[in-house]
């Protein structure tokens, strides 16, 4: 057991050439990570579970409804990618300022990020709202099957973009200073409100109308608005005068060149990364959608559990981002390196447990989305269960890649992350998936085997991404990045 103790010891995590001073004792270091990681993991997992509950409620209307809502996922994420990029910069910079103890600069960064978000919101809504139907048709919407419901869902989600984006921005800043408990409360409450109104508006409970897919979209919009109110309250509440982040209407709400340049330094590479990721995932989803509605419904079910498992790694990655940024702000790159390694160890344990659960419980998990009176229910069920095997195989590679990526983002090394994502998500995944779907699905007319082939391509993508991220992280070049 000595090798296991050494593997988890902080002394084995940082090479001598990278050390600046004494490392923290192993127990203290893990305790510091857990303080941020546990609330963050709970937040991400509960949000993913609530999202799954959303899909399960929609599934009562059949596989066409699942596919219609699923079609909206990638266009919506493309809209949000601008804010993910912005928030990457916000979290990294606020974490640095937290480490430096520079409260005024952190709040200036947040104010400028909010102003930038408002400009982006106006531009995106002007583009997406008039062309909602064309967008859903482009990603695979079929008239009379998924196009109409998908368009309705997308339009309502687009109208709720201001609440979604601004809440994300504020929560990103709070994570940078380590307030992961606060962001957990905000997102869990807002998503719980979403589920409540799903139940009321999808099925028409009591005096509420039976709106089906439209009701699911309206419920999501209501939940997002609640999240915005809670996140804004966390900044303006008078009792929070001692908090590191606190805004006031009397602050200088205008663009600041230095703050914008700092955000841009991290955010521009993050934006390239996000655009490439979303573009690659969109193409991948469109390729899979061409296999047919039933195959795509099985794909969406698999995606639900992949997103759930991703949330575990993402939660640990958030803690890694914050701690790496804060330690670099304190001029302790060796401690930043150590915390990234600890996060990887923690994520590895989670991934093994998740893989076991997915394999052993896949039948019961898939049945949560399939109803016996649904058309082609047995075919979709069996196909989704095969997909779940690949989901289980992806766990160790996914969590390691996600956590390492989070650490590199916390250091501001977004250019390398963007390059890696372009190579894997934009290059490898779409090309190989197209080959699998065309050869197996169309030429050989085996759509079910083509779907598994497309998922195996995603597994190869994840393995490659993990190797690239770990190589960069272990090299330590990111230690010297200035923000």
TrEMBL record:
<keyword id="KW-1133">Transmembrane helix</keyword>
<dbReference type="GO" id="GO:0005886">
    <property type="term" value="C:plasma membrane"/>
</dbReference>
<feature type="transmembrane region" description="Helical">
    <location>
        <begin position="346"/>
        <end position="371"/>
    </location>
</feature>
<keyword id="KW-0812">Transmembrane</keyword>
<dbReference type="Pfam" id="PF01554">
    <property type="entry name" value="MatE"/>
</dbReference>
<feature type="transmembrane region" description="Helical">
    <location>
        <begin position="77"/>
        <end position="96"/>
    </location>
</feature>
<dbReference type="InterPro" id="IPR048279">
    <property type="entry name" value="MdtK-like"/>
</dbReference>
<keyword id="KW-0050">Antiport</keyword>
<feature type="transmembrane region" description="Helical">
    <location>
        <begin position="185"/>
        <end position="205"/>
    </location>
</feature>
<dbReference type="InterPro" id="IPR002528">
    <property type="entry name" value="MATE_fam"/>
</dbReference>
<keyword id="KW-1003">Cell membrane</keyword>
<feature type="transmembrane region" description="Helical">
    <location>
        <begin position="152"/>
        <end position="173"/>
    </location>
</feature>
<feature type="transmembrane region" description="Helical">
    <location>
        <begin position="217"/>
        <end position="236"/>
    </location>
</feature>
<feature type="transmembrane region" description="Helical">
    <location>
        <begin position="416"/>
        <end position="437"/>
    </location>
</feature>
<comment type="similarity">
    <text>Belongs to the multi antimicrobial extrusion (MATE) (TC 2.A.66.1) family.</text>
</comment>
<keyword id="KW-0472">Membrane</keyword>
<keyword id="KW-0406">Ion transport</keyword>
<protein>
    <recommendedName>
        <fullName>Probable multidrug resistance protein NorM</fullName>
    </recommendedName>
</protein>
<feature type="transmembrane region" description="Helical">
    <location>
        <begin position="383"/>
        <end position="404"/>
    </location>
</feature>
<dbReference type="GO" id="GO:0042910">
    <property type="term" value="F:xenobiotic transmembrane transporter activity"/>
</dbReference>
<dbReference type="GO" id="GO:0006811">
    <property type="term" value="P:monoatomic ion transport"/>
</dbReference>
<dbReference type="GO" id="GO:0015297">
    <property type="term" value="F:antiporter activity"/>
</dbReference>
<comment type="function">
    <text>Multidrug efflux pump.</text>
</comment>
<keyword id="KW-0813">Transport</keyword>
<dbReference type="InterPro" id="IPR050222">
    <property type="entry name" value="MATE_MdtK"/>
</dbReference>
<feature type="transmembrane region" description="Helical">
    <location>
        <begin position="36"/>
        <end position="57"/>
    </location>
</feature>
<feature type="transmembrane region" description="Helical">
    <location>
        <begin position="275"/>
        <end position="293"/>
    </location>
</feature>
<feature type="transmembrane region" description="Helical">
    <location>
        <begin position="449"/>
        <end position="468"/>
    </location>
</feature>
<feature type="transmembrane region" description="Helical">
    <location>
        <begin position="108"/>
        <end position="132"/>
    </location>
</feature>
<feature type="transmembrane region" description="Helical">
    <location>
        <begin position="305"/>
        <end position="325"/>
    </location>
</feature>
């Amino acid at each position: 057991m000595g090798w296991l103790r050494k593997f988890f010891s902080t002394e084995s995590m940082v090479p001598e050439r990278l050390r600046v001073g004494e490392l923290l004792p192993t127990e203290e270091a893990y305790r510091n990570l857990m303080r941020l990681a546990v609330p963050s993991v709970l937040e991400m997992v509960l949000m993913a579970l609530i999202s799954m509950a959303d899909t399960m409620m929609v599934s009562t209307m059949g596989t066409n409804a699942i596919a219609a809502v699923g079609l909206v996922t990638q266009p919506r994420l493309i809209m949000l990618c601008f804010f993910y990029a912005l928030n990457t910069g916000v979290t990294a910079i606020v974490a640095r300022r937290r480490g430096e103890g520079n409260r005024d600069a952190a709040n200036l960064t947040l104010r400028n990020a909010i102003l930038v978000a408002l400009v982006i919101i106006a531009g995106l809504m002007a583009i997406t709202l008039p062309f909602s139907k064309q967008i859903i048709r482009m990603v695979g919407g079929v008239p009379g099957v998924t196009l109409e419901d998908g368009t309705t869902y997308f339009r309502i989600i687009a109208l709720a973009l201001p609440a979604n984006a601004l809440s994300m921005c504020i929560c990103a800043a709070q994570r940078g200073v380590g307030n992961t408990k606060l962001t957990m409360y905000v997102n869990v409450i807002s998503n719980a409100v979403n589920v409540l109104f799903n139940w009321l508006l999808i099925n028409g409970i009591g005096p509420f109308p039976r709106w089906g897919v439209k009701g699911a979209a309206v419920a999501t919009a209501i939940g997002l608005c609640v999240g915005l109110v809670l996140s804004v309250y966390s900044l303006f509440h008078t009792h929070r005068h001692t908090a590191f982040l606190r805004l006031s209407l009397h602050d200088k709400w205008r663009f600041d060149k230095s703050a914008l340049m700092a955000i841009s330094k991290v955010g521009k590479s993050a934006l390239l990364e996000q655009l490439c990721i979303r573009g690659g995932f969109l193409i991948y989803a469109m390729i899979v959608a061409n296999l047919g509605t039933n195959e795509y419904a099985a794909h969406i079910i698999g995606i639900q559990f992949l997103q759930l498992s991703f949330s575990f790694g993402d939660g640990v990655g958030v803690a890694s981002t914050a701690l790496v940024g804060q330690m670099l702000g304190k001029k302790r790159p060796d401690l930043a390196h150590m915390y990234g390694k600890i996060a990887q160890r923690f994520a590895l344990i989670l991934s093994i447990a998740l893989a076991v659960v997915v394999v052993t419980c896949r039948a019961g998990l898939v049945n949560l989305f399939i109803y016996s009176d649904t058309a082609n229910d047995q075919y979709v069920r069996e196909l989704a269960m095969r997909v779940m095997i690949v989901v289980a195989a992806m766990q160790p590679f996914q969590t390691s890649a996600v956590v390492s990526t989070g650490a590199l983002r916390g250091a501001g090394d977004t250019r390398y992350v963007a390059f890696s994502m372009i190579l894997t998500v934009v290059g490898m995944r779409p090309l190989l998936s197209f080959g699998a779907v065309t050869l197996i699905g169309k030429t050989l007319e085996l759509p079910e085997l083509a779907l598994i082939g497309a998922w195996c391509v995603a597994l190869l993508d994840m393995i490659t991404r993990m190797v690239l991220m770990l190589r960069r992280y272990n090299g330590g070049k990111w230690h010297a990045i200035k923000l």
